[in-house]
Amino acid sequence: MATTACFIIVSRNDIPIYEAEVGVAAKREDAAQLHQFILHAALDIVQDLAWTTSAMYLKSVDRFNELMVSVYVTAGHTRLMLLHDSRNDDGIKSFFQEVHELYIKVICFFFLAHPNNMFHIYHFITFSVSYVAFS
Amino acid sequence: MATMDPLMTPLGQMLLEEITPVVMLISTPSVEEASRKNGLSFLQMLTPFCSFDNIDVPVRTASDQPYRLHKFKLRLFYASDVRRPDLKEAKEQLKQVISEAGEKEFPDSNSDLPEINLELSSSSEYENTPSWFRFLNKELVRVASFSDHEAFDHPVICLLAVSSKDEQPINRFVDFFNTNKLPSLLNDGSMDPKISKHYLLVHDNQDGPADRANKILTEMRSTFGSGDCSLLCINSSLEAPFKHQDNPWASYITNSSSSPTQDVGCFLNMDDIDEIKVLMQDLSSKHIIPNMEQTIRILNQQVSATRKGFRNQIKNLWWRKGKEDGADSLNGPVYNFNSIESQIRVLGDYAFMLRDYELALSNYRLISTDYKIDKAWKRYAGVQEMMGLTYFILDQSRKEAEYCMENAFNTYLKLGSLGQLNATRCGLWWIEMLKARDQYKEAATVYFRICGEDILHSAVMLEQASYCYLLSKPSMLRKYGFHLVLSGEQYKKCDQIKHAIRTYRCALSVFKGTTWNYINDHVHFHIGQWYASLGMYDVAVKHMTEILCCSHQSKTTQELFLGDFLHIVEKTGRTFEVTKLQLPVINISTLRVIYEDHRTFGSPSAANIREALWHSLEEEMLPSFSAAKTNWLELQSKLILKKHSQNVCVAGEAVKVTIEFKNPLQISIPISSVTLVCKYSASTDEVISNENESSMEKDNKVDHFRNMSSDNSSFMVSEVDFLLGGGETTMIQLSATPREEGTLEIIGVRWKLSGTIVGFYNFEMGQPKKNILKRRKTKHLPNEKFKFMVIKSIPKLQGSIHPLPGKAYAGDLRQLVLELRNPSEFPVKNLKMKISHPRFLIIGKQENMMSEFPACLRKKTDSVQSVMHDNPNITTDTVFLFPEGTSVQGETPFLWPLWFRAAVPGDISLCMSIYYEIGDVSSIIKYRTLRLHYNVQVLPSLDVSFQICPFRSRLEEFLVRLDVVNKTSSESFQVCQLSSVGHQWEISLVEAPDSIFPLQSLMAGQAISCFFTLKKSSRLSTFGDDVSTSPVKSDARLVPESIKDIVYDVNSAPLVNFHHYERLQQEVSYKGDLNTVDFVLIYRPFRSSDDPGFSTSSSVMSHHACHFSTASTGPISWLVDGPQTMHHDFSASFCEINMKMHIHNSSGATTFVRIDTLDSAGNSGQINNVNVVQSATTDNQAGWHDIAPVNELKVASNALETQPGKALSLESASSYIWSGSSSTHLHIEAMSSVEIPLQICVFSPGTYDLSNYVLNWKLPSNGQGDSDEKRQHSGQCQGYKYYLTVLQSI
C-alpha cells in the first residue's frame, strides 16, 4: 500500500497538465510544493535519460530522501511521473501503461473534437487515476 | 581536461597546501613581544616564507630513485595549537564568516533577478561561485585536522625560539621540552614525542647591537650541536616605519582585523625579510626534508622486515586472527605511535608529503587491510581516503579513486558524530576530485550527502550542490533551483535571512515563467515574507502580489497568503498601488463597451443583443448612404472619416463598460471603489491630441491611473463597491459620463482590494482582440476603440412597453402600450418602428387605445364589412411609419397601442427598433434609433390537435375531432369557442357543450376530445363578391348557451393579424390546396392563477391551427349512392341494381378520372379488399379509420340464418358482376362534381361488398408541376366498403 504518491503528467514543453495526490498518507501542508519541487527537478534527469533508452518506462530515475520518482516517457515526449515511497516496479509499470492508453484515447478524442481545448483532459484522467487502483 | 596534471587541478593544489609537513613552534613571550611590534605574532611573521615555489631539493626515498622537489610548503603551528581544533570556536567563526558574506552578497532589492548565464558558467567554476565557499571549505577541512588516526599532521620538527633578551636562554630551550608543556597528542602516545628540534635565537635590533646574541649563539651551538642552531635578527628598520611595496603578510592576516595591513611588518626591512627567507629555506632543505627522507628509509626497512614477504604476511594474518576476539571497542584497538600499524601510516604519509606516491600507496594498501581486519574503522576510513587521493594524483584508476573515497566517506558516516568532521573533509575532497573530472552531477550528490546535523553547514553545502548542477553539462537548471530552495530553507532555519533571500531569488530565475504553481507560490511567498521581516515592505509586496491568484491552494493556504499580504501592505502604512494586481481576476474577454451614438438602447439587455441582429432589423429604416453618393472618391474618404474613424458619444450620456470580475479564491474578498480610469482632453481634433499625448503617454500611463481623481470636472465616473464571495464571478457595469465636448479615452479600470491596495488594469494591454459593438470596422488602432469623440447633447428618446409580462401562457393575447418620452427640449420627428417578431407583437392602431380590451374582440353583426378592409393591412411586413406629424417632445409621453400574443412556448427575445430624426440639424448625428428588447418566457398551455375525416355518406362534409390537453401544472382553462377562419366553412358542434365540459373548464393535465361537423359553405364561389348575405356560422361555441358571454370575432383586428402570421409560420410546402381549413380556438384562464408572475388581466387566449387539408387521399372524393337492402325474387330472374357515384374534384385543376370496376371472380372475397382499404388509409391509423359496420352485418346474417338452406357467409361470397361499363373515363372540372351511374347484377340473395372498384385520377402535369416536385400528380384509390344486402322476396 502506497503511503505517499503523487502523479503528474508533464507536457512536452514542461507544463504540468495534470496533477493528483494519490497517496493515502495524511497530507502535510507543504507536501504539494515539495512534490512539485522533486518532480520538477527530476525532469532534469529524465531529459538526459530519455534518449539513452528505447524503453518508455524509465523505472525509478531520481530520489529525494525516501521519495522516488518513476517516469514513463511517451512517444510525444509527454512524461508521466509518479512520486512514490515504496518499490513496486511492475505495478507502476502497468499503471503507467494503462494511463498511457487512456491518455492517448483522450488526446485523440479531444484532438478530433476540440483541437484547441485540452481542458477536459483533466476530467478524463481524474477518472482514469481513480480507476487504475495503484497498489 | 583529462590530460590535465592532477596536481594542477584545484584538488591537487589543495593537497599541496594542506597535506604538508607540520612545524611545531614554541616561543618565549619576549620573542612574541618583539614580533608584536610589527603587528604580527612570531608565527605570522614566519608564515609567508614557509611556502616555496621552487625549493629544488633532491630527494631519494625508499625506492632509490632520486627526484627533485620543487613546490614545497611548511605548516607552522604553535605547540598549543597542535590538538584537535575547538569545534565550538570554529563553528562560531564559520557562522560569522557566513553572516558577513550574507551582508556582502545581499542583492540590491531593486535589481532584477539574476540571469543564469550558461556561457559564463561553462568557463570557470570559480568565477561563478561565491568566493567565501572556498574559505569555508578550507575551514571545514582544517577543523578535522590533528586527528589521532592520521599522521600527516604529526610535527616533523620543533622550532624553539628564544629571544636574546631572555634570561638564561639555554635553560629556556631546555625548559621547553618539559613534557607537561607539550601537546597532549605527543604525550598520550599517538604521536612520536621524539621530534627533531631546531633552536632559534631571535634578536630584536631595537634592543641594541647583536653582540650578546652572537655570544648566546655560540653557547647554544656548543650545547645543542652546531647544525641545529641559528640566529634571527629582526626589527632592523630603526627609523621611520618601513613601507613594503608588496606586503608579504597582507594576504595572511586579513581575517584578524586588529590592525590595518599597511603597518604590518613596519620594522622589518629587506634584510630582515631576506634573513627569514634564508632561515626557512635552510630549515626546509637542510633539516626537514633530509629528516623525513631518513625517517622514510628507516621505517621502510622496518616495514619490509616485519611485513613484506610471504612469511610475514602469513604471520600477520595469523596474529591478527588471534587478536580479533580481544578488541571489540567501536574504534578498534588502540595503536601506539610505535606500533607497526602507526609506523606504516607515518611512512605512507611522509612518502605522500614528499611526493613519493607509489610508496605511499603501497603502504596505505598494506595498512588498509590490517585496519579492516582489526575493525579500526576510523583509521581504515582515513587510509582509504588517502588511497583515494593518491590514486587521483597518480591519475591511475579513476574507478579505484572514487571507490576509495566513497568507501572512506561511508565508513566515516557510519561512525556517527565521531566521524562527522572527517566525513565532511573527505566529502569535500571527493567533490573536488569529481569536479576535476567534470563530474559535477555526482559532485552535487556528494554535497547533498555531506549535509549533516549542522543546519548552517547543510545550507552552504546545498547551495554549493546547486552550483554544481548549474555547472554540469548539460546544466540541470531545475535541480539547481530545487537545491537553492532547499538551501534557502536551511539558511532560514538558522536565521541567515539574507542568504535565504539570495538563494530564493536565484531560484526564482529558474522558476520564472513556469506553470508549476505550487513551486512559484512557495518561492514568492517566502521571499515576500523574508523581505517583510527585514522591513523591506515594498519588495515584499511585489513578491506577494504574485501569489494572490492561488486558486489551486487549499483554503487555509489562501487565507494565509492573503492575510500575510494584507498584513505587509498594512505595515507599509499607505495605500499601495500595484499595476499588476491579480486579485480579483479580470476577464478581459468579457469586456464590452456600450456607448450610444446614433444607436441608443432602451435597456441594458438591448445592448447585449448582437449588433448584426439590430442591423438587419434597422436596415430598411435607416436612410441609405449610397443614395447620396455624388463623387465616389470624396464620399469614401468622408464616410471613413465620419463613420469609421472614431467612436462618437454624446455629452451627458454615459459610456458604459461591463466587465467580469472573478474571485479565484475560496475566501471572499472585499472590493471597493471600482472606477473607470479615463482621460479627457478638450480638443476634438484627433490628430492634434494624438501628437500631444503620444510622447508623454508611455511615461505617464501609470500616473494617469494615480491622479485620476484630481481632474474630473469634465467627466463623471461611477463607483462600485462589492464583496466577491469565494469562487464568485460578478459582472460589473461601470460608466463614464462626459459633460463637455472633447475627447474621452477610457484607459482602464482601478479598484481597491480590502481598502488598502489599489489595483489597475489597462484595457489595451490585456485586450486580445476587440470585442466592441462596432463590428463593421475591421481594423482599429488599439487606442481608438476606447477613445470617444464627445459631441454636444442631442435629444434621446426613452421608450418602454407596458405592461409586457415576463411570463405568459402560450396563446395569451394582450393589449400593450408603447410609451415614448423625450426629456430634451428639441423635438424628434419622422418616427418609424420595426419589430423582430410580428408573430408575437404587432402594432395596433391609434383608435385601439380607446377601446376596452376583451370587449373589442366581440363579434358584431355588421363587422364583416370592416374585416374585409383589414385584410390588406396585415400583409405589410415592413416598417411601421407613425402618422405624419408625430413629434415627441416634452413631458407628455407619446402612447401607441401594441398587441401581444404568446405564440409558441419558449424563451422569446423580442426586439424592436424605433427610428427618429432630430429636429436640430446642426449636430453630426442626424437621426437615432431606440432599441428595445424584452424577454418573455412563454409556458405551454393547451396542446391542441385536429383530425379531419370526410363523411362517407355526404360529400363536402367532414367530421372534425378536436383533442385538447391541458399541459399546465396548475392552471385551468375554459375553452370558449372554435372558429374556422374565412367564410368557406360552416362549423357546428356535434353534441351539446354541457356534455363535453361538465365543469365548464379544463383542469391541469386533463384531456378532452370533441367532435364538430365541418361543412363547406355553399357560396364558396362567390367569395368576396357579395358578402352581405346571410351570415355563415363559422363559430362553434363551446360554452353553454346559458352563460352570457361574447362570441369572439376571429376576423377582427388583432386576431386576424396574428392569424396571418401564424398562417405564414405554419405554411406547408404543399401550396395551392384549396381545401384547407384554418381553425382558431379561443380559450381563457378559468380562474385567476395564484402565481404572481402572471398578470390576471388577460382573459383571452387563442390557438391558431392552419392548413388542415380536408382531402386526405387525393384531389377527388366520391360517394356511392344506392340502396342498402333490397328484396328480390331470384326465382324469377337475377337482380339488377342501379346505383350512382358522385365524384367531386376538390383540386384547382381539371382532373382526369378513370373508374375501373373489377368483377369478384378471381377475387378472393372481401378480405383482401379490407386490407387494401386499410393500407390506403394508414395516415389515419392512429386516429380513426374505416371500420366495417359489423353490427349491420350481423343483423343481416342473422336474418339470413332464419332462412333454411340459404346459409351464406362472407368467406363463400357469392359473386356479383358489374353490369355497367367496366371502365369509365371522365374529366372533372375544378371544384365541381359529377354523377356517374353504376349497375350490378346479383344472382343470389346475400350481402355484398361493393368495393371492387378502383379510381385512378390524374392531374395535368404542366405548369405548376415544376414548382413543387413533391406534389402527387396521379394516384389510385380503392373503393369504399359499401354493403348491399339482397333478400329473397317472399
TrEMBL record, chain A:
Gene field: Vigan.02G212300
Lineage: Eukaryota, Viridiplantae, Streptophyta, Embryophyta, Tracheophyta
Gene Ontology BP term (one): endoplasmic reticulum to Golgi vesicle-mediated transport
GO CC terms, sorted: cytoplasm
Stated name of the protein: Trafficking protein particle complex subunit
Pfam family, one: Sedlin_N
TrEMBL record, chain B:
Annotated TPPC8 second Ig-like domain residues: 811-930
Pfam family, one: Ig_TPPC8_1st
Domain TPPC8 C-terminal Ig-like: 1123-1252
Entry-linked Gene3D superfamilies: Tetratricopeptide repeat domain
SUPFAM superfamilies named in the record: TPR-like
A cellular component term, taken from the record's GO annotations: TRAPPIII protein complex
Domain (TPPC8 first Ig-like) ranges: 611-756
InterPro entries: Ig_TPPC8_1st (IPR058541), Ig_TPPC8_2nd (IPR058538), Ig_TPPC8_C (IPR057651), TPR-like_helical_dom_sf (IPR011990), TRAPP_III_complex_Trs85 (IPR024420)
Descriptive protein name: Trafficking protein particle complex subunit 8
